[in-house]
Write the structure tokens for this entry.
Amino acid sequence: MREEVVLDVMRQAVMTVITVSGPLLLIALSVGLLVSIFQTITSIQEQTLTFVPKMIAVFMGIYLLGTWMMNSVVELFVDLMQNLGNVIR
């Protein structure tokens, strides 16, 4: 197996992981930041308060973006399976 083929497959896999997980990470980051600002303003220092809004936001993100995420991963898998002969050589 040539190095170029392996590097290309790994590049595609890493880019797919980044594009699929990026929106959910941004949603969790923004909700966590908003909850932290709210906690700072109201002086509520409850440690577990950040988890519930983040979980709800991430689940909503999965609900809204799940089809696109699954299509991206399936597209990568189908592309790998179609080019399996080139990858194995």
